């Protein structure tokens, strides 16, 4: 058990202000480090356990320009489970302190079946592993108080003209079923006590002592974290052995006449738009990723897919080279900013797969970074799927000769000059490298819950109809098999 009533109040010879100043030294060390280190602190605990006071002790001596306090906004269930964590992810060198955390939905939900809890736990584990590998130091606190202390603090807060803002029915309800909640909290803490991000349970009977203990733990954890990260030598563990040659096995050509195309297009677009509204009505979010060689026809396919869809609920994100502030975060951070809430749809013209394509080939990511990205992406898409999200991925497959023809057509058409750049021609010189990287991407990231659809793309009409028909089929299946998998649907 992590919640052990036998632990004693922490005794510190150092003042909290002195401990805070030592933490500020480590903050400056993180900011100066070339290793791109950041710090996340989560402060969980009982209601009225003194989380605010401990947080103040932690940040008081720090340079506030590089500290971000992230409150519990209470609506995390409408987003992918890890949205709040990614939304609050600090830039490299900086710190975020969470009041509550992404674990709050678990702490707030009684009666979780073991299988369901295991699935949630795996998602939390996967995300923590991704951040750990990306040089994030993650420190988790749980403040523990007795039932009597909690009740007394609730009563005192209600009697105070200002502190009463911090308490409410939730505090009283938790106190009234204290023993039941204690067993539940211990179960969640034990399940999510990962070796690389353990829980630190603090006796918060004395708020000053709790602050001193939290600071002491932070000094130790941050020091160990910085030493670990700065001492790392990037190591590439390549286990991939090419067995399948997907791009060689699937033809780029598909036949469709203009007459057949015109006969089918509008009916399919109307059906797709109707399904968009059905997905909205059932609160099913949709994420669609488009990838392919330059001039593959991604933009035209997206335009035909969305032409009759309600623009209030469907959005298109064009993924260009990351901006400076985006490069200050993990590569997945900017995509979490764009993932849809329940019922909405977001379509990505290029996506997170740039990590294993352009970033791999152009050297923007180290080999160890893009190598582990396959698993990180699979884990992220599993989270989306567990969030009841429909995840569709289309790779538009064109031949090298077809690309050349399209490039030359763009050069000859003044209205399409903006579509062709020197970089497009330069990328064409690396066709074989992109072909190899794409094949590996398709093999390693096509899963049961988020499979790739390779679309023959030499005939644009065929590709557009193919995608519309596949979207309709997959959306109908999602509606048929709809089974909400969310803590918001369970009884607390």
Summarize the structure.
With 492 residues, this protein is an alpha/beta fold. The chain has helices at residues 16-32, 51-59, 83-87, 104-107, 114-133, 147-159, 169-176, 178-191, 207-230, 246-249, 258-281, 298-306, 324-327, 333-336, 358-362, 367-386, 400-412, 422-428, 431-445, 460-480, and strands at 38-45, 67-70, 95-99, 136-144, 199-203, 286-292, 314-318, 345-349, 390-397, 452-456.
Classify the helix fraction into a percent range: 40-55%
- CA-CA gap between termini: 22 Å
User: How many β-strand stretches?
Assistant: 10
What is the string of helix and strand elements?
A: HEHEHEHHEHHHEHHHEHEHHEHHEHHHEH
Q: Estimate the global geometry from the Cα principal axes.
A: elongated
Radius of gyration: 26 Å
**Can you list the strand order of the major beta sheet?**
2-3-1-4-5
Assembly level: single chain
Largest sheet: 5 strands, parallel
- Structural class assignment: alpha/beta
Q: Low-confidence segments, ≥5 residues, pLDDT <50?
A: 488-492
Bin the strand percentage.
5-15%
Count of runs of 4 or more consecutive helical residues? 20
Mean pLDDT metric? 93
């Amino acid at each position: 058990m992590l919640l052990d009533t036998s632990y004693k109040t922490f005794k510190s010879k150092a003042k909290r202000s002195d401990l805070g100043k030592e933490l500020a030294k480590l903050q400056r060390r993180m900011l100066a480090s070339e290793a791109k280190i950041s710090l996340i602190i989560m402060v969980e605990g009982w209601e009225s356990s003194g989380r605010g006071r401990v947080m103040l002790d932690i940040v008081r001596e720090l340079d506030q320009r590089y500290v971000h306090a992230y409150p519990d906004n209470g609506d995390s269930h409408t987003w992918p489970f890890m949205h709040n964590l990614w939304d609050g992810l600090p830039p490299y060198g900086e710190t975020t302190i969470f009041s509550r955390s992404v674990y709050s939905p678990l702490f707030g939900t009684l009666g979780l079946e073991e299988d369901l809890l295991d699935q949630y736990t795996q998602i939390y584990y996967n995300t923590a592993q991704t951040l750990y590998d990306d040089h994030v130091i993650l420190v988790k606190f749980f403040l523990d108080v007795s039932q009597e202390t909690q009740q007394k603090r609730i009563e005192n807060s209600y009697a105070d003209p200002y502190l009463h803002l911090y308490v409410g029915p939730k505090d009283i309800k938790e106190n009234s079923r204290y023993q039941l909640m204690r067993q539940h909290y211990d179960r969640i803490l034990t399940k999510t006590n990962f070796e690389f991000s353990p829980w630190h349970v603090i006796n918060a009977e004395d708020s000053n002592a709790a602050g001193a203990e939290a600071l002491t733990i932070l000094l130790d954890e941050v020091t160990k974290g910085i030493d670990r990260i700065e001492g790392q030598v990037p190591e590439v563990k390549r286990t991939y052995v090419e067995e399948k040659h997907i791009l060689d096995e699937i033809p780029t050509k598909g036949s469709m006449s203009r007459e057949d195309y015109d006969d089918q297009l509008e009916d399919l677009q109307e059906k797709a738009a109707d399904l968009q509204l059905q997905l909205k009505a059932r609160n099913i979010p949709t994420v669609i990723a488009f990838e392919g060689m330059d001039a593959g026809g991604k933009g035209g396919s997206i335009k035909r897919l969305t032409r009759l869809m309600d623009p209030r609920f469907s959005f298109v994100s064009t993924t260009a080279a990351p901006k400076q502030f985006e490069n200050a975060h993990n590569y997945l951070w900017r995509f979490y900013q764009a993932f849809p809430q329940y019922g909405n749809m977001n379509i990505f013209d290029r996506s997170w797969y740039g990590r294993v394509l352009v970033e791999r080939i152009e050297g923007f990511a180290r080999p160890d970074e893009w190598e582990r990205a396959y698993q990180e992406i699979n884990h992220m898409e599993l989270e989306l799927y567990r969030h009841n999200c429909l995840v569709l991925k289309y790779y538009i497959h064109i031949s090298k000769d077809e690309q050349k023809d399209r490039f030359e057509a763009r050069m000859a058409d003044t209205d399409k000059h903006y579509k062709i750049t020197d970089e497009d021609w330069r990328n064409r010189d690396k066709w074989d490298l992109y072909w190899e990287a794409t094949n590996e991407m398709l093999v390693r990231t096509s899963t049961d819950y988020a499979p790739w659809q390779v679309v023959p793309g030499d005939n644009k009409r065929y590709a557009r109809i193919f995608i519309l028909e596949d979207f309709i089929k997959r959306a109908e299946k999602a509606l048929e098999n709809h089974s909400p998998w969310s803590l918001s649907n369970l009884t607390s």
